[in-house]
Amino acid sequence: MTIFLLLASAGVIYLSCEMFVNGVEWLGRKLEVSQTATGTILAAFGTALPESVVTLVATAFSDHEAQKDIGVGAALGGPLALSTIAYAVVGICLMIYGPRLGRGQHALIEVDGRRLSRDQAWFLGIFALKITLGLIAFSLKPWLGFAFLAAYAWYFRIEMSGEASAEEGELEPLRIRPRDPNPPMAWVVAQTVAATVVIFAASRVFVGQLEAVGPWLGLSPQVTALLLSPIATELPETMNALIWVRQGKERLALANISGAMMIQATVPTAFGLFFTPWLLDRSLLVAAAVTALSIGVLFLAFRRGRVSGARLAQVGWLYGLFAVVALAIG
Question: What's the DSSP call for residue 169?
């Protein structure tokens, strides 16, 4: 039953993400925001909001230290999974769908390198601050949570007011109104919200079953939460990226991951600072080091404009490195 629920929930998440990406693209069109902002803000907000709520509940409304530790771990595990697995999935999909899209495995893809490298640089700066705060204890630390919320507010303003780039791909008909060339806003919102709710519910089932698999593999609850839970919580962003790459919209896929990482770097961290001592153990520091290494590699690739499916796929190995070290520590 556990395996069945694991596979079934993953299938439901994928199908719901199909509805979500279609709805959020129409939402961006209706709100007249750029396609990039649709990925970095609208899509990222929709898929990262449930994870932020889980962190909030774990840190603010739980009396158990173990639950609070899980909330802190989620704030570190999310960026780790996005910076390694999610980007690697985009790279692998580009390699698989490359021939159909008219490019080879090592062909460079057209991306806004300046914008993406800027996002990686800002993420590294914010990430370095959150890790530094996890090494020291002082009474005013909770107040710094507002600085992280302000950082995301600044990012939101920049993205929403940024210049629009040329759109890639065609906008498919709204799934629940396939014959309507210009569906009303109410239908667009209904499809997007409904898909988000289903993604959230299916993700919770997926996480629960994944935690049950841990003991079968001989993993402790702490190592299971650190290794496997981030994969589950970032599954919607990864599915979104897979779908957009399959549609030939790799810039939108990369923008979605970049925007989700900015949310993960700020909002869950603010909750952790508000409601926990925010002190990081060895395993979390290893996760932070691997995340920073991956982002550094991506920053150089985006900055130089040398981005290909094969190069993006390489960062996936860093998650394997983290797994080996985490198991050794555990």
Answer: S
Q: What are phi and psi of 220, to 5 degrees?
A: -70, 160
Summarised one tens digit per residue, pLDDT across range 183-197 is 999 999 999 999 988
Question: For residue range 84-141, what is the model confidence (pLDDT) as tens digits?
Answer: 999 999 888 888 877 776 665 556 676 777 888 888 999 999 999 999 999 988 888 8
Distance of alpha carbon 85 from its chain centroid, rounded?
A: 10
Pair 72, 280: CB distance under 8 Å: yes
CA atoms of 308 and 275, how far apart (whole Å): 41
Q: Give the 3-state secondary structure of 40-53.
A: HHHHHHHHHHHHHH
91 CB-contact burial (10 Å; exposed 0-12 / middle 13-18 / buried 19+) = buried
Q: What percent of the chain has pLDDT over 90?
A: 22
Q: How far apart are alpha carbons 58 and 229 in whole angstroms?
A: 14
